[in-house]
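Hi there,

I know you've been waiting on this one. I reran it after we fixed the sequence typo, so this is the corrected version. Both the input and the resulting structure follow.
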Amino acid sequence: MSSIREGMMRAARFHSGGEIRIDEVPIPQCPHGGILVQSLASGLCSGELMGWYMERKAASGPHVLGHEVCGVVVESQDDRFPVGIQVSPHHHAPCFECEVCRKGQFVHCETWRTTKLDPGGMSEYFGVSRELLGDCRVTDGLDHVTATLVEPLACVAKQLRRLGYQEGEKSAVIGLGVMGLLHTLMMPGSVAFERNQGRIDWSVNSGVNARLPDTSEKFDVIVVCPGSEEAFEFALSIANPGARIGLFAPLPPGKLGFDFERAYMQDLILVNSYSCGPNDTEVALNWLKSGRIRGEHVVSHRISLSNLPEAYEQMKRGDILKPVVMFG
């Protein structure tokens, strides 16, 4: 079935070399068995600032940014998602039937790895395939900016679940970019460490116990948000024996300089957490609906699509916390 919408639209694309351009691209067709969504808001993910990762994405051509999305269905081939409802689909979804899915390891499902928004969320329209509807959340009742937090907050839910975090444990978060702030807000009583004074000030205004990374205090649960050796080394220095350290972001490829002997001799537990699955997006949506997290807690700038290239560089430098593109 062909789309009733034809022609061109604007999309933000990462070009090899690190340039962000607002390009004209074709409006996607409504996928067979899927939906076509008109964008309302799209957040810039901190993972899209990692140059080595984005160069890999753009190796075969310009890559459309954006997967933290909120939009309205304008065409539908699935009765569960009628025209006019507000949705926030995940950009990957599992098959729910394979061996890894049966184990709950959804992000390692082959279907999960091959599905994606068409062409991406930082565009005026995007297609959501039939497979992706397996993790597409109806977000009617949430404001557009808060609804963009379903996916990033689900990543927090997964990290805390894998860590076995219990409220009241002596906990620390390293890094107060948007993901560190989300972790801290969901870990009441935790201490957050950050070098950027602007991020510290924002977080303190949100009720966070935020400090410079200069302490002899030790913790039992630590979440490391920056993908850097320096952040990981700091986590080792503040870990109690037997502490659980969550590695939220990947370290750059290649041989790493730190010595794992210290982690071994202290019985430290290192817990990686990659992306999130449908069980985590359900938890995140419930948190958002309860009001525990709102857009204004973590979104510092609402911008137009035209202003995204500048905001991208500002966020990369740490000058702003998090921009969300508002469409229409």
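Quick highlight: Residues 162-272 form a domain with the Rossmann fold fold (CATH 3.40.50.720).

Best,
R. S.
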